[in-house]
Amino acid sequence: MHELGITRNIVAIVSDHAGASQVSRVALQIGALSAVMPDAIRFCFDICAKNTVVEGAQLEIEEVPGRGRCQRCGREFALDKPFGQCICGSRQIACIAGEEMKIKEMETI
Question: I need a labelling partner for 8 at 20 to 30 A (CA). Which of 46, 56, 65, 92 fits?
Fold first, then answer.
């Protein structure tokens, strides 16, 4: 469960940027191909935020679906794993979405 360490880092980054201000909302983007489980982040968030300026903040997670582009024919299509095959037969697929893990926004009081 590497999400505990990831969530600790999210809280540390948000706390550093908030300074002494109380954080009211944190918005994340998590890609479907990032190997990070949003439900595990939700589970860990309140635990990691306890006794910090992030405690009590609302957590919003936008899940970004995987998307690839065939390097042979240029077709774009949905990916449910970090590899695949285009309908043209090519396996040269570039992942163009779904690998991200970002702190998108935060709000302070």
Answer: 65
